[in-house]
Amino acid sequence: MTDRALSVVRAGALTTVQDRGRPGHAHLGVPRSGALDGPAAALANRLVGNGPDAAVLETTLDGCSLRPRSAVTVAVTGAPCRVTVDGRPAAWGAPVRVRAGAVLDVGPAVLGVRAYVAVSGGVAVEPVLGSRSTDLLSGLGPAPLTDGAVLPLGAPTGVDARVDVAPQAGPPSELVLRVSLGPRDDWFTAGAVRRFLSAVFRVSPASNRIGLRTTGPVLERARKEELPSEGMVLGSVQVPPAGTPVIFLADHPTTGGYPVIGVVHADDLPAAAQARPGTAVRFVSARARGCRGS
């Protein structure tokens, strides 16, 4: 058995393999998938010398623990968290050398939701439709990690970054999302559209990789009939019968039958990946300058 592998000591609440996703398959009913916080995943790969397409691990809230079978370089980015190697503190947001058999522990997120763990060589599970990403909606890609699982690693292709720590955006205290209205904003009352662009919503605990659900003011529909299913894109803000917006994230369905009041600017979606339940959410017109998740 190859020594280029990781043993999963503690899988955590939800840890999945992710890369840049599998775009271009919506006509087959296959979502894009991929890392929700793309910039954080890309930074982790750069820190360990991986190429941009290398697969990383995406943790959710409580991290994970891993034991490499050979010496590797790792980097943890995204949600700030405590990182240790065999119980000793190690750097977050910087390359860390982990010897064979040592236990890398990625602790619970202090802020934010999702941490990204890159390993030199990348996680080399078998790709499906050109991607190694786990898709929770369609079931494509590797299953979420379980205790005792073994993940193959690729051969290192580059040199880790020579930095003490890499700057990265912090998780948002308030999520401000630029949105372009439509295509179905005319299915809502004028008052509902104004409320959508002025009221404060909150991130719901029911949020996941498929969509960021919100709580808050109800958006009343002007049209009550059924809408035939139509194509959905990343960032679509769909409004189900309950009347509160749902922002479609990477594992979103490719079609849907509830009206889409607007579409969030793609550059603002990484911040949505790090917004904890209860975080304030505001939608602003994409025409407004200088408005983005922070």
Automatic annotation (TrEMBL):
Where is the Carboxyltransferase domain positioned along the sequence?
Answer: 27-291
Q: What is the lineage of its organism?
A: Bacteria, Bacillati, Actinomycetota, Actinomycetes, Kitasatosporales
Q: Which SUPFAM superfamilies match?
A: Cyclophilin-like (SSF50891)
What are the entry keywords?
ATP-binding, Hydrolase, Nucleotide-binding
Pfam families xref list: CT_A_B
Q: What is this protein called?
A: Biotin-dependent carboxyltransferase family protein
Record has Zinc as a keyword = no
PANTHER family (UniProt xref): 5-OXOPROLINASE SUBUNIT C
Q: Which SMART domains match?
A: AHS2
Q: Which InterPro entries match?
A: CT_A_B, Cyclophilin-like_dom_sf, PxpC
